[in-house]
Design goal:
alpha+beta, Aminopeptidase
Length: 177
């Protein structure tokens, strides 16, 4: 049975339990304001060295400035998590909050967990006064198309700070009104 609840600072080390395994066959890039699909084959196995720990530190800072962290557990194992940063982003003429993190363990994908967490993130962002959710998505086809199915659209001009952090990411937004 899956248990959902808000995450605390104490839960941050558990993020490394999420199984990010994925076989990627295609990715997107942005060219002239449009998404272009291209072949890219690689096997993502677990977390790259040090990334889970780095994420935990980043999310700790997010939590301390008022960010919202929410997780899904199977018994004591964290199998999915979503984070909305409280920092305001102005883009597309809208006030936004960033979807900072959304990961679902491999064995729990395709069961609606991601859709449910994304909807909760939208609800939380709306309640905090946002008109849209900003998403800096990994360029894999599965990820980008998941966000498109949730109503996300390509931003005209990525947020400069977020683009500097993740220049290969696909920068999207989801209107909340």
């Amino acid at each position: 049975m899956l248990i959902e609840r808000e995450l605390t600072e104490h839960d941050l080390p558990l993020l490394a339990q999420i199984d990010r395994s994925e076989r990627v066959e295609e990715c997107y890039r942005v060219e002239n304001g449009a998404l272009v699909l291209y072949p890219a084959r690689f096997d993502m196995r677990g977390w790259p060295e040090g990334e889970a720990e780095e994420n935990a530190l980043t999310l700790e800072q997010c939590l301390r400035r008022g960010g919202w962290l929410y997780g899904v557990f199977e018994a004591e194992m964290l199998v999915a998590a979503v984070v909305v940063d409280n920092r305001v982003i102005h883009n597309q003429g809208l006030t936004m909050r960033q979807l900072k993190f959304l990961h679902i363990s491999h064995d729990y994908r395709g069961q609606g967990v991601g859709v449910s967490l994304f909807k909760l993130a939208c609800k939380h962002a709306r309640q905090s006064g946002a008109e849209a959710l900003y998403v800096s998505a990994t360029e894999s086809r599965n990820t980008v198309e998941f966000y498109q199915r949730q109503g996300c659209r390509l931003v005209d001009h990525p947020d400069p700070g977020l683009f500097d952090q993740e220049p290969k990411d696909i920068h999207l937004y989801c209107p909340l009104t």
